[in-house]
C-alpha cells in the first residue's frame, strides 16, 4: 500500500549519476552528522570535497579533499550538500560565501540542514534564477543513523532532481521520501517531529502516572505497547529506564536526540504554524517544558529525559 | 517476550468455572457496552440475570432473566458484573442498593466500569470484609469491541480470582491483562488512555501543520507511519478524513470513542495524578481543549474531531 | 460602587449576636490558620472551645477550653467553626465524629476550609435536615492575614445567617463577602485563586523574558505596573527577588502561600470545572507546572517560586 | 517611587526640538494607528510628510504633504517615523526603499512598529554605521489611544535621542518610558503584552468557572477586583459582557485589540524567548488557543472574545 501512494523513488535503474565516471560531490558542514555522511560518500567511492569552519572537523573525513572555503567546495562540483545548524547560516553560506555563484550551471544543491520551510522555498527560487538546482533533504535518524548509514531523507523539490540524487542519498541512508515540491521535505520532517515531541511527553506522563500509582513498569509498558497508547516513543525508545536496552533512558539519558534539537525543531514547527495561522497547542506546551528543562540543567540530555523530570527522580 | 513478563492468565486449563454445570452470572448496567457484553454471555450458554434502571434497556439482552433490582441480581449469583457510568454509582449500587449484602459468600464482583482507582481499592477492601471477592476489570475497545466480542480487559485483584473469571471474560473479549492488585486495572487503563488522548492531539496538530503548509495528506500520513511519529492514533485511527476507511474521521466523526468519554478518562487520570503529586502537563492541556470542544458543539463526536477543530474546517 | 451591588453585609446594627451575653464558639482544626483565628476570638472576649487531633496544637490557643473530641466542641455551642485540610475530613468530622448530631438545634456551622463547592452544598443540605444552619466561609489572606486579623471571608449561605455571624467573622478578618447561596463562597474563592495562579505565572514568564533579554528588572516592573500587564501578582507580590520588600521572593521564597496550597486550589477549581463541563486551559497547565515543581524540590516554597524555576537560577 | 528609578524623560525643558523653528517630520505607514498619530503631529503645528503604499490612506492625514515614495519622505526630514506591520517590511522600507540612504546625517529614525527586538537592534547598528540615529518606540493603547492622543511609548535607544524626541512623542501620547538601549522598547512591550495575554485568559477562565457554577457575574467581578485576582484585564477591560461599559465585551467583542494582533505579539515574544532559551509555557498555550479561535471564526474580534469561546455562548 505504502509504495503505491508515496512517491518513493524506487526505479532509478537508468540513473544519470550511476552512469557517471567522475562526478564530484561537495559537503559543507562537517559536524556530528556531516562527518559520518561525508565519510560514507568517500567509502562508496565518490570523489568528495569538504569544508567546515573548523579545519579540525573537516579533516575528520578521511579520503576527502579539504577545502579552504565554501566557494572552493562549489567550484567544479556536480552536487553540493550543506548540513548546517540553521537557516541563517545556510543562507549566508550559499548566498554570501559564494557557493551559489561558484557552482557550475545545472549542478545540484542538497540542503540536509533542518531549517524553516519558507527559507528552503526562498533558496529554491534563488537557485533556479541562477540556473542551479536545489532540493531540501533533511534527515531523520540522528547521529546513530548517520554513522550506520541508515538515515531517512525527506526531500522537497523537483521529481527529476530527486531521482538524479537518490543513489547518492542511499550511500548515506536507507530511505528516501519525496514529500512534494520545494520546502516539503522540511515540512514533513517538522510535522513528524512535532508528533514525536508530543508523543514522547505523553508516554512519559502516562508511564509516570501508572508507576507512581504502583504499577510494575514492565507490565504497564507491555500493556501500552499492545493498546491504543502504542507508539514509537513507547515501543522502541521508552523514556523509562531499563525497559529497553540501548536507549538513552537506560544510559542516564546520554546520546540520542538532544533536548535542544527537539526544542529547535518544535520552534521551527511553531514558526511554520504561525505562517499558516495554524494552532498547535500541545506542541507549544511541550516545547516550553522541554525548554524549561534546559534552563534547569538537562540541556545535554536526550529529550526522553522529560520522564526523569516528571518523576522527580534525582 | 510479552507473555513471559506480563502476567497474562494463560493456563486456566483446570478452571473451576469450566467445571461448573450451573453457575449464574449477574450483569448490572445494560448500556451501549453492557447490552453487548451480557449478550455474549448468553450466547456462550451462561445463565444470565440482568438489571438496569431502564427496564427497556434491560430487556435488550435476549435470553437473560430481567431482575427488578440490583439486589435480585445478586441473590444466588456466582459472579456479578457492574458496567456503570462512574464511581459514585458503582458505590451506591454495591453498598446502598444491597448487592454486596445479598451476594453469596465467596462469590465474585467484577467491576468493568472505568472509575477512580482509589474507589476500586476501597470496594476491594469492603468486599473482602464481607467475604466477597472483588476485581476491577475496565475494558478497552469501545462499543465496536463490545459488539464484536474483542474487548481487552485490564484487571486488578488477586491472581486466583483473575484465573477463575478469565474464561468468562474471554466470552466477551479477546485479551485479559492482569495488571496488579486491586485498582491496577483502572490505573493501567487510565495511563494508557492518557497517552492515547495526548497522541491523538499530537497527530492532529502535526497532520494539520503539514497539510496547511501544502503537503499531500496521504504522503504525510505514510511518512509518519514509518517514522518516529508512528502511533496507534495515526496508523489505525487517523483523525484526518479519508485516509483510512471505517474510522470516525471518515464518517463525519460519528461513532468511535466519544469526546466526553475521553474527557472523563483524562479527568480520572488527573485525579489519580493529584493523589500521588504527579505532573501531567500535556494530558491536562489536552483535557481542557477536548472540554472546550464540548462547549462549542462537538460533544457528540469521536475524540479525533480535534483535527476538525484545529483545521477550522466547517 | 462596590458596596451597592455586592451584598456586603454592612448594616448588622441590630445583630442578634451583638446582643448575646454568653454565647459559646467552637473551633475545630487548630493548624497554622486556626491557631490565629481562634486566638483572635479569645482576645475579643468570646468564650471559645477548641479541638485538634493534635492536643499540642489545640493548646496553642491561650484562653480557650481544649476539648477531647469534636463532639465535645459541638455540645452547647452556638457557632462551630471548622478549618480543616480537605472535604473528606470536613465530612468525617461533621457527620461521623458526631458534630452535627451534638450541635444544639438552630446553631450555626461555619466551614472555613477550602473544599469542593459540591461538598459544601451537600453539607448545607444535611445540616438543614438536622435543623442546623450551615455556611461555607473560606478565607483569603493566608497565615499572615490570619495572624494580623485581616482575612477576607467569602461566604455562601443564607443571608440571615451571614448577617448573624458577621461580627464574629470580623473579629478575625477585615472583610466579609456574601457571594450567594451554599457553596458560593467556595466557588468565589476558587475562581479568584485560579486567576491568581495564572497571573502569577504570567508575570513570572513576562518578567523572566524581559530580564533574560537584557531589561533592568526595576524598569520592567514599573512599566508593567502602569500598563495593561498590571496585576496584584506584579504590584504587591512580585515573584522577582528584591523588587519589593517583605514578599516571599525577596526572602528565598519562604513563607507566603505554599505551592502545595496553590496546587490544591487549582485541583479543586478543575474538579468544579469538570462538573459544569467548563474548560480552564491555562489554569490546568499552570497547575501541572506547579506540581512539577513540587516533584523537583520546590514543595516548601511560596508559589511565586515559579519565577525561580523558569529563570533557572540556582 | 516610580519616577526615581524609571528613566522617564521628565525634564526636557531645554529641548533642542522645542527650540526649532522649522523641523520636518516624516511618517511612513498610515494605517489605523498611523493616521491618528500623524494627524496629531499636524494639529500640534508640525510640518509633516507622509507615505503609505495606499495613496488613499496617505491622504487621510489632513494638512500633511503626501509623498510618492518612502525615499521622498526621508529627504530633508529631521525625524522619520515608521509604523508598519512587521519587521520584514520595516527592514525593506528602511534599507531597500532608500529611507536610510536619503535621510540627512544625524537625523532620527523612530520605529513605532512592533517587531522582533533583534531586528530593532540590527537596524540601530546599521543606522549608526550610516550616521543616522535610531530608536525603537512601540506603543500601547491601541487605536483608541492613538485617536485620543494618549498612547504610551516604550522606547529603546540612546538617552539623548529619547530626550530629543520626547516632546514630539508627547504630541501623540501621554507617556514615554525609556526602557534601555536599542531593542529595549520592543522587549518591554512584548513582556508586558505576554502578561496581558495570559491574564486576560486567566480572568476569562476564572469568571467562566464561577458563572457556570452559579455565581452572579457582578458579584464575582467585584470580589476579584478587590482580591488577589485583581488585574487590568478584570478591572478595566472585563471579558464578561455587560460588567463594564465601553469595553469590547459589551459590544459583541468589536473594536479593541484584535485577536490577531495579540497572537502576533505572543509569537514575537516566543521568538525572543527562543533566542534566550527562556521558557514561557502559559504564554505559549494562550497563544495557540487564541490562534485556534482565529481558525474557528473569531479572527475579527477583540482578544477578550476568549471568554465567549470558553463559555460556549453562541
From TrEMBL, chains A, B, C, D:
Domain annotation 3-hydroxyisobutyrate dehydrogenase-like NAD-binding: ranges: 183-309
Keyword field contains NAD: yes
InterPro entries for this protein: 6-PGluconate_DH-like_C_sf, 6PGD_dom2, 6PGDH_NADP-bd, HIBADH, HIBADH-like_NADP-bd, HIBADH-related, NAD(P)-bd_dom_sf
GO biological process: branched-chain amino acid catabolic process
Catalyzed reaction equations: 3-hydroxy-2-methylpropanoate + NAD(+) = 2-methyl-3-oxopropanoate + NADH + H(+)
UniProt entry keywords in alphabetical sequence: Branched-chain amino acid catabolism, NAD, Oxidoreductase
Protein name, entry field: 3-hydroxyisobutyrate dehydrogenase
Organism this protein belongs to: Cryptolaemus montrouzieri
Classification lineage: Eukaryota, Metazoa, Ecdysozoa, Arthropoda, Hexapoda
Amino acid at each position: 500500500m505504502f509504495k503505491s501512494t508515496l512517491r518513493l523513488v524506487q526505479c532509478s535503474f537508468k540513473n544519470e549519476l550511476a552512469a557517471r565516471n567522475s562526478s564530484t560531490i561537495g559537503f559543507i558542514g562537517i559536524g556530528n552528522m556531516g562527518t559520518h555522511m561525508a565519510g560514507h560518500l568517500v567509502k562508496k567511492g565518490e570523489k568528495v570535497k569538504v569544508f567546515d569552519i573548523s579545519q579540525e572537523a573537516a579533516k575528520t573525513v578521511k579520503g576527502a579533499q579539504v577545502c579552504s572555503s565554501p566557494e572552493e567546495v562549489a567550484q567544479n562540483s556536480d552536487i553540493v550538500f550543506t548540513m548546517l545548524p540553521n537557516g541563517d547560516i545556510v543562507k549566508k553560506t550559499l548566498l554570501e560565501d559564494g557557493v551559489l555563484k561558484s557552482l557550475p550551471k545545472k549542478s545540484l544543491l542538497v540542503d540536509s540542514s533542518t531549517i524553516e520551510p519558507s527559507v528552503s522555498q526562498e533558496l529554491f527560487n534563488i537557485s533556479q534564477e541562477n540556473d542551479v538546482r536545489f532540493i531540501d533533504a533533511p534527515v531523520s535518524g540522528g547521529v546513530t543513523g548517520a554513522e550506520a548509514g541508515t538515515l531517512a531523507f525527506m526531500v522537497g523539490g523537483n521529481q527529476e532532481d530527486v531521482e538524479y540524487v537518490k543513489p547518492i542519498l542511499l550511500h548515506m541512508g536507507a530511505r528516501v521520501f519525496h514529500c512534494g515540491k520545494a520546502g516539503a521535505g522540511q515540512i514533513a520532517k517538522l510535522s513528524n517531529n512535532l508528533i514525536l515531541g508530543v508523543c514522547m511527553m505523553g508516554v512519559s506522563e502516562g508511564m509516570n502516572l501508572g508507576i507512581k500509582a504502583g504499577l510494575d513498569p514492565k507490565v504497564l509498558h507491555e500493556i501500552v505497547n499492545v493498546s491504543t497508547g502504542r507508539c514509537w516513543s513507547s515501543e522502541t525508545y521508552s523514556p523509562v529506564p531499563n525497559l529497553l536496552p540501548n536507549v538513552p533512558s537506560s544510559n542516564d539519558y546520554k546520546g540520542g536526540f538532544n533536548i535542544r534539537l527537539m526544542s529547535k525543531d518544535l520552534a521551527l514547527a511553531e514558526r511554520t504554524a504561525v505562517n499558516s495561522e495554524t494552532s498547535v497547542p500541545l506542541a507549544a506546551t511541550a516545547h516550553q517544558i522541554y525548554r524549561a528543562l534546559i534552563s534547569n540543567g538537562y540541556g545535554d540530555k536526550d529529550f526522553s529525559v522529560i520522564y526523569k523530570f516528571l518523576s522527580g527522580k534525582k
